[in-house]
Amino acid sequence: MIGRQIDENPAGIHLPLEPLPGHTSRGRLERVLRRGEFAVTTELNPPDSADPEDVYN
Fold first, then answer.
1. Residue 33: is it exposed, middle or buried by C-beta count within 10 angstroms (0-12/13-18/19+)?
2. Average pLDDT over residues 28-49
3. Alpha helices of 1-57 — where are they, by DSSP H?
């Protein structure tokens, strides 16, 4: 089949990823993902107004 990927890990085992050579990061998201854990991210848009109270509404 065209476009079909072969699952190299059919058992679903999440193995930690090795650090990239010459790359260091103290970011929490990268640490979580490299350990093979599940992570949720979200994006927030800034308010349309300059009034700080609008953030809480």
1. middle
2. 85
3. 28-34, 53-56
